[in-house]
From TrEMBL:
Residues the record lists as binding [4Fe-4S] cluster: 39, 180, 193, 197
Pathway(s) it belongs to: Cofactor biosynthesis; ubiquinone biosynthesis
Name this polypeptide is given: Ubiquinone biosynthesis protein UbiV
Any one GO molecular-function label of the UniProt entry: 4 iron, 4 sulfur cluster binding
Assembly behavior: Forms a heterodimer with UbiU.
Function: Required for O(2)-independent ubiquinone (coenzyme Q) biosynthesis. Together with UbiU, is essential for the C6-hydroxylation reaction in the oxygen-independent ubiquinone biosynthesis pathway.
InterPro entries: Peptidase_U32, RNA/ubiquinone_mod_enzymes, UbiV
Iron as UniProt keyword: yes
Superkingdom, natural source: Bacteria
One GO term of the biological process aspect: proteolysis
Lineage: Bacteria, Pseudomonadati, Pseudomonadota, Gammaproteobacteria, Alteromonadales
Keywords linked to the UniProt accession: 4Fe-4S, Hydrolase, Iron, Iron-sulfur, Metal-binding, Protease, Ubiquinone biosynthesis
Length: 291
């Protein structure tokens, strides 16, 4: 089993991003995803900076993937998408079907990201024909669902033609909206947000009236209120999952990467009382089940 670092989902200052990837370069991560996937206003790093960083990481032996935006809203964002797709040799994670269309037209392989609504073996078959080589399962799906869809892929004779990646750590990206909830929470219109996301390095936590941690607001993204954590479910992923993704929250994520590796067969379980893993177990997503 391999381990990946997903794209940073939050708006971090440029020096913090560069410092994180300098540490990631020395880490045991097999795959590193880069790029801005949430909001095009977050321009601390330009497209050329992401491409340069990708080439530096690839030079250190990491498999590097450039991730595209999940919700395109302006011609300028489509232009950036085309720049990504025209980069040459760096693999792309497509997070909307526009990226899939561009890459398919160019005959380039791609990773189908978690924002792609793909829920059947027949959809996977279609994506394979377009060039998919790895599929990141939508975050709200379960182990049972994954097992069933892969059985369907066996029947179609396509199971061995792609890798499966599962979101295993971090706040779950549950929904995207044309509205910016972080700006709204500061009573600002979206076009006058003043880049306030940079004040919330792990998103802005919201609670219910009863005080329960409910959601995390991250720009146009609504995330889970608890950190999703499948570290104690790794033993049940063998023969189903090829890559486990950790979504960066801070440099501590690299410590969690080593804990995941140590527990790949369940020999080093961790205490995760405040986290959740419900979706993997086919129960309410915010719940925590003991494997």
């Amino acid at each position: 089993m391999q381990y990946s670092l997903g794209p940073i989902l939050y708006f971090w200052p440029k020096n913090q991003v560069e410092e994180f990837y300098q540490q990631a370069m020395q880490s045991s991560a097999d795959v590193i995803y880069l790029g801005e996937t949430v909001c095009s206003k977050r321009r601390e790093l330009k497209t050329k900076d992401w491409v340069a960083l990708a080439r530096e990481l690839a030079g250190k032996g990491k498999q590097v993937v450039l991730s595209t935006m999940a919700l395109l809203e302006a011609p300028s964002e489509v232009k950036t998408l085309k720049t990504y797709c025209d980069n040459g040799d760096i693999l792309i994670e497509a997070n909307d079907v526009g990226a899939i269309q561009l890459l398919s037209e160019q005959g380039k392989p791609f990773v189908a990201g978690p924002a792609i609504n793909c829920y059947s073996q027949h959809s996977l078959h279609r994506l394979l024909k377009l060039g998919m080589q790895r599929w990141v399962m939508p975050v709200e799906l379960s182990r049972d669902w994954l097992q069933n869809i892969l059985s369907g892929c066996d029947e179609l004779g396509i199971r061995n033609q792609f890798e499966v990646e599962v979101f295993g750590y971090g706040y779950l990206p549950l929904a995207y909206s044309a509205r910016c909830f972080t700006a709204r929470s500061e009573n600002r219109p979206k076009d006058q947000c003043e880049l306030c996301c940079i004040n919330y390095p792990n998103g802005r936590l919201t609670r219910s009236q009863e005080g329960q941690e409910l959601f995390v607001l991250n720009g146009i993204q609504t995330q889970s209120g608890q950190c999703y954590n499948l570290i104690n479910d790794l033993a049940g992923m063998h023969n189903l999952v090829d890559v486990v993704r950790l979504s960066p929250l801070s440099a501590d994520t690299l410590d969690w990467l080593e804990k995941f590796r140590a527990n790949k067969n369940g020999q080093c379980p961790q205490t995760v009382e405040r986290d959740c893993n419900g979706y993997w177990h086919s129960i309410a997503g915010m719940n925590l089940a003991t494997p």
